[in-house]
Amino acid sequence: MVAPANFFFFPSETILEVDHTQSRVVGDILYLQRRIAAKQDRQDYFLRGNEVELKFRPPGEGGVVAILDGREFPLSKSAWTQLGQYLKAAGLTKILEATIKLAPDEQAVFAACQTVVNAWLLCTAKRLRWRVVNRRVEGKVVSVLDGIVSDTYAPFSHVEALEVVAKFFGEDQSVINYRLTTTEMRLRLAEEPMVLNKPIKMIEVFNSETGHRSLSFWGRLWKLICSNGMAATLKDYGRSRNNHVGEMRQRVENILPEQLIGIRQSMFEGEEIRKQAADVRLAWEGESTSGAGVVEAFITAENERRKVKMNGRQLKAVFDHGVPDETSGEYGTLSFVENAITRGAQELDSMRAQRLMEDIAFDVLQRGLKQRDGDLIHVRPLPAAA
Questions:
Q1: Of 82, 93, 95, nearest to 129 (Cα)?
Q2: For position 330, what pLDDT does the model report?
Q3: Cβ within 8 Å of residue 304, ≥6 positions away
């Protein structure tokens, strides 16, 4: 449910972020999260929709608040969005927008919208879990309603998630990045030492205490591109997703070890594919002539090979859908050429050479795929200086 501009809700915001330059480990992050959780002091109210009332006030008077067991709590924007899926009202946002247009003044706007929403709440008999948490706002602690989920939702706190991480990865595991927001937590773990311009294996952990994410473990490759902190997250290689239902802790601890084996195997295979692709690019660099760049040499030969091997219908399928054949790898299918050029540019030391390769990628994307006469992919000459 989209929030009309006239209403004030507490926005989603970042609470804390730690990056790889701070040399943290899982044990440090777990300690920080425990301290934060103690200050947040999360509480749950189990109430049916028809047992809750909303009040709409101007921003200076608290904005939109919910009355839970006689106590008033301001709503977060994410909680308002979640509420919409439990109200049995189709197009409620449009109804509110129409109500706002018809109201003669601001006071009438709030009164009319309050009447409309509470009328639909009275029709909602479903029992919900209303999650309240402490936030620091302008130096004061404010209890905010930041999550509305089903009563079957099984809370799994960020502290519990990090305890699972510490159990299976160790408290001394290096942390690439930790970001805590009002809606979710993300933790990136380095599976091997971080080296500039070298992809490394990474496990990415997600969790939400308010129903925005499942507890997830993703296998990825991560690369530190520049010494100033610029980094790139590369392709996914397997993931484990655990919905917030039932006995979360026991279930996750039982199945996670086997899932991690699969994720790590996928990451290993993905890294091998990337190495092979890099070897192909380096091989073309050795065979290219002084009058043509690496990319043109590769594309020209690839075009010739495809002309012989594939008919017109197959070629169109490759252009339009990226259909691979048995010889295709990361740099083997024509539809992946633009991506291959962009990734190859990241490996060059010269900024000018990087820019030239990115220009070629732009040509491929904007003009080459539309061209059906002459070469299958039109490219501009790359100066020998690149």
A1: 82
A2: 39
A3: none
Give the separation between CA 373 and CA 361, rounded to whole angstroms.
19
Of all residues in the chain, the percent with pLDDT exceeding 70 is 66
The per-residue pLDDT for range 321-335, each reduced to its tens digit, is 443 433 444 334 444
Alpha-carbon gap, residue 328 to 33, rounded angstroms: 45
Count CA atoms closer than 13 A to 371's CA, side-chain side. Answer: 13
Burial of 54 (0-12, 13-18, 19+ CB in 10 A): middle
First to last CA, the chain: 52
Q: What are phi and psi of 285, to 5 degrees?
A: -60, -40
- Region for 374 from its dihedrals, namely left if φ exceeds 0, alpha if ψ lies in -120 to 50, beta otherwise: left
Q: Give residue 235's identity as a one-letter amino acid code.
A: K
Q: CA-CA distance, 270 to 258, in Å (whole number)? A: 19
**CA separation (Å) from 170 to 73, 131, 195, 379?**
39, 31, 21, 50
Q: Measured between alpha carbons, how far is 46 from 79 in angstroms, rounded to an integer? A: 15
Partners of residue 178 on adjacent β-strands: 18, 187
Sequence-separated (6 or more) residues with CB below 8 Å from residue 19: 176, 177, 229
Residue 2's φ and ψ, nearest 5 degrees, are -75, 140
Q: Where are the beta strands (DSSP E) in the chain?
A: 14-18, 43-48, 53-56, 64-68, 71-74, 127-137, 140-150, 175-181, 185-190, 200-207, 215-224, 231-242
* Amino acid sitting at position 142: V
Tokens 């026991």 locate to: 250
Adjacency order of strands within the sheet including 185-190: 14-18, 175-181, 185-190, 200-207, 215-224, 231-242
Mean pLDDT to the nearest integer, 229-240: 67
111: tokens are 């009164």
Summary count for the chain: helices (H), strands (E)? 10, 12
pLDDT, one tens digit per residue, over 349-384 is 677 777 777 777 666 655 544 444 444 444 444 444
Q: Among all chains, which residue has been given the structure tokens 């009328």? A: 119
Residue with tokens 């002084």: 290
